[in-house]
Amino acid sequence: MAMVRCVTEMGMGVDVHGLDFTKAATRAVFDAIHHSSLGFQRMLGKTADDMTVQVTIGVSQPDKVDTAAVLATLPHGNGRGTCTAVQGGLEIASAEGNDGMLIANAVIFVLFDDGK
Q: Would you say the pTM of this structure is higher than 0.85?
């Protein structure tokens, strides 16, 4: 089985208050997957549920992202996928220093088995 990367999407998500890294990450995924509507899989004799999805999230504190929760927001892929959080994004402290704004970046790859 060879997995072939068919789609690459990027997105950005922000948590304005609360420093919730998972919220910023899920918003970045939402942004990425709502840039397009995939229909090409029918030409491959596949459905949207045959896809495998790889998600990479960039945030300033990757260990604070619940990657399982982020992966669970995807509408397709039948649970065949991965979510990895890596160093990136942006964190800006509030003027008082007791809150902040987070910006997360997401890259999503959609892969299909080529049957070989």
A: yes
